[in-house]
Amino acid sequence: MSEYDEIQIIPTTGRNNCGGRCIIRAHVRGGEILRLTTDTPAEAGEGVPLCACARGMNYHRTFLSPDRLRYPMKRVGPRGEGKFQRISWEEAVDTIASEWRRIRDTYGPGSRYVTYATGVSAAFSPKSLAQRLLALDGGYLDYYNSYSTACISQATELMYGTMHTGSSPETWLDSQLILLWGHNPAETKFDCVSMHLLQTAKAKGIPLVVIDPRESDTVRALDCEWIPIRPATDAALEDAMAYVIWSEGLQDQAFLDRCCLGFDKAHMPPGVPPEACYLSYLTGETDGIPKTPEWAETICGVPAPTIRSLALRLAKAKPAAILLGYGAQRHAYGEQGVRGAILLACMTGNVGVRGGWASGHALYERHADFPSVKPQNPYGRAIPTFCWTEAVEHGHTMTALDGVVGGERLDSDIKMILNLAGNCLINQHSDINRTAELLRDTSKCEFIVCSDLFLTSSAKFADILLPGVSFLESENLTQPWKWGDFIGYNNQVIPPLGEGRFEYDWLSEVADRLGLREAFTEGRDTRGWLEHLYNQLRAKEPELPDFDAFRARGIHRYRNNPVTIAFEAECRDPQAHPFPTESGKIELFSPKVWRTTFKSDFPAIPRYVAPPEGPQDPLRKKYPLQLIGWHTKRRCHSIHDNNPGLEPLDPQRLWIHPDDAARRGLSEGDAAEIWNDRGRTRVPVHVTRRLQPGVVALAQGSWFTPDADGVDQNGSINVLTSQTPTPYARGNPQHTNLVEVKRA
To answer: Does the model's pTM come out above 0.85?
Structure first.
């Protein structure tokens, strides 16, 4: 190509697991990306600017780096060593089809599993396509929950009967107080709306308070009041706030009486002892301990006067909103912090009113989702996604008590894993050393297929390793997370590198070997499927333009955006409009939990339960520091960790309080070793007062990089995290860990 070739500007959008879904414009000449630009306020008009952050502006440097996987390969050494030999696509597809049939015929459909993977979070995702083919071939073991939201999802549904508890986010501007509880949208890029609205709220004079063990970038960006708290103790703080509100007579008793089950003895379900209500616990009637601010201070570390002040401010602000992030529920009893926030929303009458917030998961759908490509799964059974390692080790013994749904028990261990565009096989799953040991044993899981862009720590455990394509080399359809009124088209910008292929293409060839090509493809290529899915969405959203016009523009911002308030009708008249629960009311007391065999481990009411590896665990004598993670602005989960250009944005370091550093003889920048009974990792320290004493923090997502002795050299937090799931949701407890630190 000559130097005078015309520069093309091609619109596309990010498609990995980031809520922002930023607009990217690739400036291309002769098949080479010259630079990336993004949205501007002028182009956004009255909409929220969909501007890319540093991660988005570095997509090409990350995804087109020299260490890309470029050819299909097969494992030639022990699994996990990362030794591979190049093979042809034909051999790769033949091997996959052969093992696919063998495992199906030997162990049954429930032996096949597609891992939770979010490297392609789009309408046409590799994991959904793999599940589509498996469903057409007799079925597979499915999963429910996500690594991000298991506890908040299950706890919200337990109390409200639905996870859709969100109102239109612009109603935050009608609030008199906003509590961001474990919520950090500035760094996580939670969506494309939150920070814009919170900045507007701040400018309007609405008080913003952040409750978090770490002083996040959200605190600093919004100049919020920061209340530091010990990890995994949110429910204790919520109990004490509830005690202050009740003792001052500031609860909305009329709302509790009309809309809630189980707050006091007069509103309990039939057949349950009245003293099992929440108020009996709160006042100490059941255990002799009133849940006062002084009681909570010893647990959560928040001073009693601060607790009392915050409770009074919440009760008197009419209306007020408690916005939950996902960090506070990724704890060993993460369900209880969510339930406590919902309790506070109910006690203060902030449900069903503009400017209030029902709290909980706050799913919200102003516009329809793209339809799924997955048909019904004939096998029908599913496990909590966090528990897949248990299903590899002893799936045939797992029952409903282990979270199995769709049947009483599983009939097989997992024998085949498809890990497509994901790093949860190793890096993002807890207790990396245990997981790696389990997967090295080829007599357990017999066949693993990975498709990825790089030789990640998960990809090293593949038997067949396939080169994928980035969003710059393929097409797809995208939507933002729950808030954001637009859809995007992921236009292809350049040809695939090497022999990289989008997963649909080689899955179609596997389908052909299985005699299922026509059923799997329905005669469509990728573009045909995207047009089909778009037109199905367009039937529900008539303002959408035709497919070709949408694809050329790369985005459609919805114009019709009605404001809705969650549970407005239910709160006004719960008799005529009951909540979607068994009782028709908000279940502060859960009859469902009361009837279970595990209610001794998981209470029927929202209350603090001391977690394993929490601040009250005797194990603190051996491991005195509580370790949490956070979502750093330099990575999207584990994506971008191999891009050294982003490292200065937020270097991988262990955050430690000066008091804790001094006790260990550590100074800023010193190399430290962090360890517990599960593993060890080494990383420099950052000595800072931006977190509580007794708490240390490592940004999650750093690639596991063990030395010859198995000690991680890259600050990978999951060598230290626990695989013990939470008691009700059986979710991710990865922020509840006890460790010790020393100079390396």
So the answer is: yes
